[in-house]
User: Fold these one by one.
Assistant:
Number 1:
Amino acid sequence: MRPLPITILCIALFLVGALNLISVVLSFFHVSVGRALWILVTTLAALTSFCGLWRMKRWGVFPYLGGYALGVLRS
């Protein structure tokens, strides 16, 4: 059974990922193609890690933490 905090986290992250995909489609008109593709690739990688978290797989934690660390370092 999946713990409740992980369930809530995964649902919230899936919603954010879906909104991010929508923003990528809309941003093709306002930002460079390279930037839009970067956002698309990182969003798809994040959604893959969220699937791993949802299925309670260990491999889902590492890309999630790596993406979080990259986000912190990039800020």
Note: Residues 4-74 form one domain.
Number 2:
Amino acid sequence: MADSTRSELDARDPDGLERQIEATRAELARTIDSIADRVAPKNVARRSAEKVKEQAGHVMETVSGALRRDPESDDDEGGLPVPPAVLIGGAAAVVAVTATIIVIRRRRRR
């Protein structure tokens, strides 16, 4: 059946119209729940923390790679051997600074 014919029949059929209304209500409820979940402070904070961790991980990989180059290799400029504790400390510092910046920016928005 064509859509116009179907809608004409549904308009005449109270049960069909009621089903359409219930389907629309259910879809609207799902949309509202999705929006509420997206803007919930707990979820926003969790996503922000995940972004900070991801960015810190990328920084850590970049710094670690740059510092751990093989000085004997001809294809790079060499690097300094760095103890893992120094790398972990550097990553922790990056995470702390990034988190502090995020907190300060959020407080300014209020």
Note: The longest helix spans residues 41-67.
Number 3:
Amino acid sequence: MRPILACAGFALLLTVISGCSSDDDSAAAPTAVPPTSTPAPATSTAVPATPTQTAAPSATATHTAGPPTETATPAATPTATVDPAILAADGEAAFFDTLYGTRNREEEAIALLGAAIAGNPSDGRSHFLLGMMHLFRAGQALTDYTNPSAFVLEEVARAQVALDAAVPLSGADPRVPGFRGAATFLNAVVNDDDELRALGLQQLRDAIVLYPDFNNFSFLGAVAPAVPADDPLFLEALELVRLAIASGCGPLNEPEICGNEGKAPHNVQGAFLMFGDMYAKAGNATQALVYYRFGLQLPGKDTWPFRAAMEERIATVQDRVARWSDEDPSNDPPFAGKGSEACAICHYK
């Protein structure tokens, strides 16, 4: 690797990878408030009219997602006498067991968080985690944007309801609007809804203004996999990567957001896999290899569950570029974070 390319890769590490660490407990203060942003005030107690609609999945839905492969723990049946704060804490524990790939407790997380919300509708944290659990399930099961399953459509819709509720209840946390924007955009894509797509893009852009070092990843992760390489939105995503090089966010000064010390134990590796895929999709095999290889030179590579996926990309980068560049979209290779890689490439331990 030429030194100039390695330096460019490291500079990018200091910036855009921040967003993959999706939920550390302390967020940096927003740098600005976008003039077009319209979230409710931090003191708002508004909740969706029917919050319990997001508490449990459809009885007929079948989750066919990738790892963790263990059978999900049966959903808990909390009683009305249980303190909502206890339900919220138990639901959060089930959420992170699932997110980390420790044990599949997604059904239990949904039941507990839904019960916590029913007991305390102003619990923004539980709304947020419930929305993210539904978004995780949708991402893990999604294999085709143009022909999504009924399960994916339902999970995306439920994710958006919960995250829409979470935004006005989450105070000054600038990360939540980014995830809400990602849910809105994904909902628009799988339902082919142009009006909703415009709303999702506006929410994503507003969120970047609020917290660039984190929410740029919400834009990249939602938009780059879903649009063609010649789409202006894909070029906008590439421009975000370029602009991020000037940022000073890095593992030394922001180890939780821009390193592996937060709740994304393989934040660095997952981010570089995505950056490599972005440049491969753009037709630039040389730059794609820079990011793929650099991700395997950094701490955390030896315990990363998806190391083989990065190595496979390195070995087949020319083929991936060719398949993305031809006129047949049906043979496009999977983009980072799709299917079993969704959330997992950064969060699985």
Note: The chain has two domains: 1-22+231-349, 66-174+176-210.
